Amino acid sequence: QKEVEQNSGPLSVPEGAIASLNCTYSDRVSQSFFWYRQYSGKSPELIMSIYSNGDKEDGRFTAQLNKASQYVSLLIRDSQPSDSATYLCAVFSRGYSTLTFGKGTMLLVSP
Amino acid sequence: DTAVSQTPKYLVTQMGNDKSIKCEQNLGHDTMYWYKQDSKKFLKIMFSYNNKELIINETVPNRFSPKSPDKAHLNLHINSLELGDSAVYFCASSQDSSGRSSVFFGEGSRLTVL
Prior knowledge:
The complex is a heterodimer.
Chain A: E1 4-5, E2 11-14, E3 19-25, E4 30-38, E5 45-50, E6 54-58, E7 61-66, E8 71-76, E9 85-93, E10 99-101, E11 105-110
Parallel strand pairs in A: 2-11
Antiparallel strand pairs in A: 1-3, 3-8, 4-5, 4-9, 6-7, 7-8, 9-10, 9-11
Chain B: E1 4-7, E2 10-13, E3 19-25, E4 31-37, E5 43-50, E6 53-57, E7 64-70, E8 73-78, E9 87-94, E10 104-105, E11 109-113
Parallel strand pairs in B: 2-11
Antiparallel strand pairs in B: 1-3, 3-8, 4-5, 4-9, 5-6, 7-8, 9-10, 9-11
């Protein structure tokens, strides 16, 4: 069974700090990795996708992928109160043809 | 223009009733999905269609029947509703089913079964 694990949190960080969100996955042939943000009562919104080992940066967000360790992370620099949300890690595995989501990590950024 | 739109946004109904949720995407995508998000916020795939063909059918009771009249539409019909069906149902779409294209979600339809 394909699993995606995340710490449910909440992860509390002060405004301006770096928030680090982590995700592990069980399927070694996973090929695509996504981070979504979901505000309470809203739909998931895509933040980043990453396909290759290493770092990918987009504004204040950096996704990191380590396929050998089956680990993907999301760093949010200069965290803002508006970043407070649940962050969902999603993994696509060849042969399964859809995303498997983790249960999400709640991030709280305090002013 | 909403990219993935679903209606209705809210349904409140009694056990045993039948209900439908409609979904349309105007992105020109080939692949559409139905996800269920339960009270614990766990988002789980139910069905996936690629060019109107069913490609994924997870372990979902056969009371749930998806229908895709064309690749821009994927509707969900639920028969004999049960209390455990209460959840938020999200429709989503992606360019294709390769895994390299991003999945975009509709706003969700909150179903409450009394």
